[in-house]
Amino acid sequence: MFSAFRRWRRQRTADRRTVPPEQWDAVERTLPFLDFLPPEDRPRLRRMALEFLADKEVHGAEGVVITDHLLLSIALQACLPVLNIGLDAYADWVGIIVYPGDFVIPRHFADENGVVHEYEDEVLGEAWEGGPVLLSWFEGENPFDGINVVIHEFAHKLDMGNGEVDGYPCLPAHLSASDWARAFQPAFDDFCARVDRGEDTALDPYAAEHPGEFFAVMSEAFFETPGLLKSEYPAVYQKLSRYFGQDPAEREAQSARSVPLLPSSTL
Ligand SMILES: [Zn+2]
To answer: Which residues lie closer than 8 Å to 105 by C-beta, 6 or more apart?
Structure first.
């Protein structure tokens, strides 16, 4: 839990930091899915991002230079899922380590004969229970459609809030574990079957790896391609909407409707 002192300190530190509007705009232009947030929520997200940075330590690895742009980008993306949950959901660790592009984590495991195998795992990110979040950083605009490394890893952090990564974050009182399971379990089973059949799924097939990965990938989709998630797995979208307290598909649909029609004389 956050102590009152820690909360006060992060608010004080955030109070002292000023970011010019042009700098926010430049960062947010690289994160177009922020437009699915109601405009009146944008100042709250910016303020939470500053408090997030006051509370976390960000380190670059393998030559990554920590710039203000990188810090603000990671903070905005990390705060988006908890905008209506609260920053205390990220209370139990402070470190974020940023790597360039894909990075490699050395792994080892013992097989049934006790033989230890070592290999290198290429990953985009990793979240350690009680420890740091490791993230890849790609210069410029997020190069993936519907894939968001920051939201993915921070969704794992939310999942870990009540123990192991199992696709069940700490649920608010208005969401029961059985309601959650009734939405997620059939969707996970269906998605795994589709991936097993070799279907070219619109949602990232990595979601079929594990219920915890399913939750993290569905969270990415919820914020980056909400309409797609809502059409593929409406019950999952609805539960995530209640969990995050946001409805990005509604804003996405509104912005699609607001595309100006060509005047008839030009048709
Ligand atoms: Zn993952």
So the answer is: 120, 121, 123, 126, 134
